[in-house]
Amino acid sequence: MLKQPGVMLAALIILACLFGGGGSAYGLSNLVVQLAALAAAALMPVAFWRFGANAGWPLALLAIATLLLPLVQLVPLPPDVWTVLPGRTLITEAVGAAGAGAWRPLTVNVARTLVAFIALLAPFAVLAIGLAQGRQGLELGKLAVVAAGVASVLLGTLQVLGQDQFALLYPEIEMPGVLFGFFANRNSTAIFLVACLLVLCSFPSRRPLSPKWFAQVVAAVLIVTGVVLTQSRTGLVLLALPAGLMALRMLVGWLERRGSGEQGGAPLAVVVATLAALVLGLGAIVSLPGTRVETVLARFEKGDEQRPAMWEDARYAVGRYWPAGAGMGTFDEVFQLDESLENISPRRAGRAHNDYLELAIEAGPAGLVLAALWALWVLWVAWAARGTPQRWSALAGAGILLAIALQSLLDYPLRNQTMLCIAAFAVLLLASARKRAEPQGAAA
C-alpha cells in the first residue's frame, strides 16, 4: 500500500505536519518525522539511489551540497587549523587550560550541527520519493498538503475558542485567542497556511458550483480565516501571493478561451466583479470594530524594537566568525557572546529573527552562496516551466519558496521539520513541472 503512487509522499507530509511543527525544542516529536524518513528510504531504496537521474544535475548538486554543508563542518581538523579559525579564541583558551590538543571540527558545537544535518533527512526524503512518483502521486501529495492545512485550522479553532491553552500541541507562550494549529510559532502557522493556499490555487479548474469546486472554495475560506486568526503580520501580507496567483490564473484562462474561440467560462467582467466583491467584503470585515482582523491590523501600528537590536548584535557576530562560520545550528550558543548589555532581556533570543543573518553566522559565505544558488534555480525552473501544462504547479511552488524567502527577513520559517518538508514539496512542484510535460485535460 505505501509503495503505491503518492501514498508514501502523502504519508510523509502528513506526519511532518502532525509532529514537526515544534522546532528544535521538541526533539522527540522531530524524531518521529526523521524515523519516518528513514523508514521511507528502507521501503523505497530505488527512489534514493536514482535521485540524481530523477532530479537532473542542477537540482541534484544543490540538494547534495545542502546535505554536505553541516557534514563538512563536522570533519575533525588538526589543532594547527581549527585554533586559527575566527571566533575560536575562547575554545582555544579552554582547551589549552585543560592541557588538551585534540583535533576538533569546524563547528563550535558538534551536537547542534549533527542535529541540523539530521533535520534535512525528512525534506530530502520528500524530494527523492516525490521525484520517483508519477503525476498521480504528485496530485495526492498536493491533496495531503491542503488537507493538513484545513485540519490545522480546525484544530486552531478549538485553540482560539478554548481556554487555558486548550488543544495547543506546543504550549510554550500564552497567547489567548491566537491560532497556532500544528505549530509552536504563529508565524510558522501563517506561512504554512499561505503555502496551502498556493497549492490549492494549482488544483485543476472545476466547473462553478460543482461539488469539487464547492469543496475548494470552502477549504480556501477556512484557510484564509486561519491566517487571519494567527494574527501574524507577515502572514496577512503574504496572502497577496495566493490572491495574485488565483487572479492571474483566472485572467489567463479567460484570455486562452477567448483566443481559441471557446464558449463558456467566466468572462473578464465576471472575474473583475468577483475580485471586487471579495475586496469589498474584506474591507467591510476590517471596518467592523472589535473583530480579530482589527486586532491584527492594530499590530502593524506597533513598533518592533527587539528585532533591530538583535540584528545589530547578529551583524557583529557575523564578523566574529566570518568567513568560516560557527557551525549549522549553533546560533543560540554563540549569540550570547555578542549580545549587547543594553539588549539583554530575561528571555534568550533563540533565533536571529532574520534567517539570512543567522545563516551568515552559522555557515559564512558558503551558506549565503548556497542560498543564492537555490534562488537562481527556482527562477530558472519557474521560467522554463511557463509553457508546460503544469505551469500553475510550478508557480505555486515558486510562490511558496518566495513566501519563505520574504518571511525569512523577519523570522525563521525553515527552522522546523514541517516547513522544511513543505519547502521540499515546493521544490518538487517546480522540478516535476519541468520534468513532466505530458498533456492533460486541465492545467494542474
Q: Which helices and strands appear, and what pairs or packs with what?
A:
Blueprint: H1 7-19, H2 27-43, H3 45-49, H4 51-55, H5 57-72, E1 76-77, H6 79-82, H7 89-97, E2 104-105, H8 110-118, H9 121-132, H10 135-161, H11 186-201, H12 211-229, H13 233-238, H14 240-260, H15 268-287, H16 292-300, H17 306-321, H18 331-338, H19 355-384, H20 391-407, H21 417-435
Antiparallel strand pairs: 1-2
Helix pairs in contact: 1-2, 1-9, 1-10, 1-21, 2-9, 5-8, 5-19, 9-21, 10-11, 10-12, 10-21, 11-12, 11-14, 11-20, 14-20, 17-18, 17-19, 19-20, 19-21, 20-21
- Residue ranges: pLDDT <50 for 5 or more in a row? 437-444
Query: How many strands appear in the DSSP assignment?
Result: 2
The outline comes out as globular
Mean pLDDT: 83
Fraction in helix: 55-70%
Helix-strand category: mainly alpha
Question: Structurally, how many domains make up the residues?
Answer: 1
Percentage of residues in DSSP E strands: under 5%
Task: Report, as a whole number of angstroms, the end-to-end distance.
Answer: 25 Å
| Major sheet summary line | 2 strands, antiparallel
Strand and helix order: HHHHHEHHEHHHHHHHHHHHHHH
> Any idea what the radius of gyration is?
23 Å
As laid out across the biggest beta sheet, the strand order is: 1-2
Number of separate helices: 21
Textual characterization of the structure:
- With 444 residues, this protein is mainly α.
- It is built from 21 helices and two strands.
- It has helices at residues 7-19, 27-43, 45-49, 51-55, 57-72, 79-82, 89-97, 110-118, 121-132, 135-161, 186-201, 211-229, 233-238, 240-260, 268-287, 292-300, 306-321, 331-338, 355-384, 391-407, 417-435, and strands at 76-77, 104-105.
- Strands 1-2 form a two-stranded antiparallel ribbon.
- The longest helix has 30 residues, at 355-384.
- The chain is globular and about 75 Å long.
- 40% of the residues are buried.
- The model is unreliable at 437-444 (pLDDT under 50).
